[in-house]
Structures are given as structure tokens and as C-alpha cells.
Amino acid sequence: MAFFQAVRSRLVKFDTAGRRRSAAEIETAIRQVIDKAIVSDKVIDVFDAASIKKPDISILSDEFMKEIKGMKCRGLALELLKKLLNDEIKSRSKKNLVQSKSLLEMLESALRRYRNKILTGTEVIDELIGVARNITELDKRGEISGLSDDELAFYDALADNRSAVEVLGDEKLREPAIVLVERVRRNATIDWTVKESVKSRMRVIVKRLLREYGYPPDKRKIATDTVLQQAELYAEAWTT
User: Fold this and answer.
1) What pTM, to 2 d.p., does this model score?
2) How would DSSP label each residue in the chain?
3) Over the stretch 151-209, which tens digit does the pLDDT of each residue have?
């Protein structure tokens, strides 16, 4: 699969027919190749097929990262890591705005330095493995802080402003994050993200809460915007 992804990335750049193919055309072509190439009358373990040990905890476990790092084909290892990390970050972007944005910036920064020949193939793989380990560490925060995934997402929205963390501290930011989840959930209504009157009321609720907990005045507007963007990610789940 990683091999075909690598082929796809090249096909996007080159077209022997003399015209640029659309992303949809390339995707369809790749899927057709994969469908023809992976044909079996039984269940296939893709990790065994790729001579990679199956991770016993998660796709981004330390053991699996060691398998990736040990692959002889560096290009294949890089494409596989890019695919795994992109998919992981994409899934997180539906739940945690700030966290997914930060991870994506880390990923794109490493790949940009690799394209500009600042990093070698081995070095960029190490960088991407570092991003994977960062993701693993982020997943442990809930157990350590005692916050739910929803509360962590709103905590990140508040803590995105480092000066607020310096003024209030991590501990003091937890309480408004918990209260935000409760108040936003309680006031969310069907289609609230497209109803200006409801959006305005939600903005007032967030501003009042930030003032109530002593959030830095000069950063309240940015924090309010970030919190509302985060709330929109949960809009459908909280109103159904």
C-alpha cells in the first residue's frame, strides 16, 4: 500500500498524456491498480506481507516505529510514515482543533526541510518518528490530568495562548475548560453554527466565562474565536 502511495505521489507530478490529471483521476487509477494487485481468496495480514512485525499496542507504538526505522527501503519507510501520520492527524482534526494543527505543522515542517535538502532521508524519518511519539505522549494526558477528551480539547483551545498559561498556570486552566464543555453543550442547538443569533449568544457565554476566570484581557478575543471553532467540531454530536 505504501508503495502505491509513493507511485501516486509521482503520478500527480507527471502525466505522459501531456495534461495534468485531476486528483480524483489519480486516486481512481491508483485504487484500480491496488484492486488488481491485491487479490486473494483468504484474509491477508498486511504486516506479514510487508515483513513488518504487527504492533501489539497501536500503529504508532515504539515497537512499530523501530520496524519502520529498520526498513531497508528509506523511501518506502518515509511514504508509509507520511501516510500513517496524515491519517492520524486528520482523524484528530475532527475532535481537537489546536492539537491537530500543531501536529500538522510539525509534520509539514519536517517534510519541507527534507524537500529543501536540509534533512537527509534518515533524518526526516527520525523527525516523523518523533511526531509519532509526540502523539503517543499526547494520548496519555487524559489519564494524567483527569480530563475527558472533550475537556482536553477545550483546555488546548485555552492553553494555545502561552501567556494565559504563564498567568493562570496549567492547574487553573483546567476548571474553565471543564465549565466550557458543560456550558457550550447545554447551549448548543440544532444548526447553531449557522444561526447568527445563537452564535452571538454562544460568544457572549464564552467571553463571560473567560472574564470570570481571569483570562488575560488582551487575549480573550483570540481565545473566544478558538473556543468557538473548537465547539463547532462537536456541534453535530452535541445536538443529536
Assistant:
1) 0.69
2) -HHHHHHHHHHHH--TTSSPPPHHHHHHHHHHHHHHHS--SS---HHHHTT-PPPSS-TT-HHHHHHHHT-S-HHHHHHHHHHHHHHHHHHHTTT-HHHHHHHHHHHHHHHHHHHTTSS-HHHHHHHHHHHHHHHHHHHTHHHHH---HHHHHHHHHHHTSHHHHHHHHHHHHHHHHHHHHHHHHHH--TTTTT-HHHHHHHHHHHHHHHHHTT--GGGHHHHHHHHHHHHHHTHHHHT-
3) 999 999 999 988 888 888 888 889 999 999 998 888 877 677 777 887 888 899 999 99
